């Protein structure tokens, strides 16, 4: 994403329009554009979740098989999470957050 720095000067009304919504661009946006961007956002979110699951496991220093055994989840599920084929939901998502924030306590509780 390109970042642009601008300086707003309240004394100069023209500068106050900088950085505002480009209404012409918004009007030119089609439903297909919106759908395409939504699909791209969803794909990125899936990849973020996959990277997060992998990062948590690697931080714990466990292989997929070891991680699977420690959290009592099938190894295929771990693989699917890390490959972005599936995303953890509900309790699994919460467990990953806990493992990420307080790994020692979480692993001790699971032992």
Count of separate DSSP helical elements: 6
Shape: elongated
Tell me which oligomeric state these chains represent. Answer: single chain
Kindly state the percentage of residues in helix.
Answer: 55-70%
Largest sheet: none
Structural class: mainly alpha
Mean pLDDT: 89
CATH architecture: Orthogonal Bundle
- Give me the CATH fold name: 434 Repressor (Amino-terminal Domain)
**CATH C-level category:** Mainly Alpha
- Series of secondary-structure elements, N-terminal to C-terminal: HHHHHH
* Rg calc: 22 Å
Strand content: under 5%
| Total E-strand runs | 0
CATH superfamily: lambda repressor-like DNA-binding domains
Termini, distance in Å? Answer: 44 Å
Characteristics:
111 residues, 434 Repressor (Amino-terminal Domain), 6 helices, 0% strand
Structure description:
- With 111 residues, the chain is mainly alpha-helical.
- The protein has a single domain, classed as 434 Repressor (Amino-terminal Domain) (Orthogonal Bundle), CATH 1.10.260.
- The chain contains six helices and no strands.
- The chain has helices at residues 23-28, 31-59, 64-71, 75-83, 90-101, 103-110.
- Helix 2 (31-59) packs across helix 4.
